[in-house]
Amino acid sequence: MRRQLIVALAAGAAVAVAAPLFATPDRVKLPEAYKTDFVLYNHVDRPDRKRVRFMYVNPEAHAIAEPGKVLPEGTVLVMEDHEAAVSADGNLVLDKDGRLAPTDALTGLFVMEKRAGFGAANDLPPEKDNGDWDYAAYKADGSPNTEAKLENCFACHMSRSGRDFTFTYFKNVEDGLPK
Amino acid sequence: MKGLRVAALLTASALPAATSMAEEIPVTMAGMAYAPATIAAKIGDNLALSNDDSEDHNVFVATVGHAVDLGTQKPGEARKLALAKAGRFEVECVIHPEMKAIVEVQQ
């Protein structure tokens, strides 16, 4: 019994220590009007998951983002996942350019935001230190996705530390994304 | 198996756009490098991307108009990317940023 109590306490302590390492949706909000106010700058086909991902950036950041420079503080990127259309015979539906055809069915939302102080507050180990970026996940209805493993966001985006931890936006700006 | 099924679906879906001259262009990943690193193709061709390396890879394109994420490929897995649109794009690996290939698709 005592041993079980110790294990339970240890587990509780571990959670208490680990919890602050990764942000919750409390800090990174889902911008309410992103669909109308943000710039839709790219969409990424995800055929293995039968998804299409729409990529948005806030207009304030997009107006001042420059090729080759780290992204401005206050940059907010929203990734909106939709189910891709599938034909009656089970094949993914493609448009004339071979791109997946998105449906209106939203499956989830992911937000990454860059704010001064986020990095210091995260206090992450070097292998997961994404600078001043923080992440949040939301369900299709806009409520926080508390089951999302945000540590995976930090770990995966580390591979793009050379372009400010973004897979698409920094490169797309470098490539001459229109203002 | 799932990867092969997705590849088959993609290939099957792309068939109407393909011509009799369409080619399958093999691309390997051994030693954490795409080979060939520069690829000239035409509309209707397919890239046959095989992970002949000893670790996972994840084909990814960020270029606007061509952006795609093929998901994680375990060693030994192969996936296809149908080329249905002209243009130039860069193939990356989600996991290994140093892996890059340039693809130029012409009419």
Structure overview:
Chain A: InterPro entries: Cytochrome_P460, Cytochrome_P460_sp. Chain A: Keywords: Signal. Chain A: Pfam families: Cytochrome_P460. Chain A: It comes from Allomesorhizobium camelthorni. Chain A: This is Cytochrome P460 family protein. Chain B: It comes from Allomesorhizobium camelthorni. The complex is a heterodimer of chains A (179) and B (107). Chain A has 179 residues and is of the alpha+beta class. Chain A has one domain: Cytochrome P460 (Chalcone isomerase, 3-Layer(bba) Sandwich), CATH 3.50.70. Chain A has six helices and five strands, in the order ααββαββαβαα. In chain A, strands 1-2-3-4-5 form a five-stranded antiparallel sheet. Chain A is globular and about 50 Å long. The relative contact order of chain A is 0.17. The N terminus of chain A is likely disordered. Chain B has one helix and eight strands, in the order αββββββββ. In chain B, the strands form two sheets. Chain B has a five-stranded mixed sheet with strand order 2-8-7-4-5, with no helix packed on it. A three-stranded mixed sheet of chain B has the order 1-3-6. Chain B has 107 residues and is mostly beta strands. Chain B is 12% helix and 42% strand. In chain B, β4 and β5 form a beta hairpin. Chain B has one domain: Cupredoxins -  blue copper proteins (Immunoglobulin-like), CATH 2.60.40. The chains are: A alpha+beta (179), B mainly beta (107). At the A-B interface, β1 of A face α1 and β5 of B.
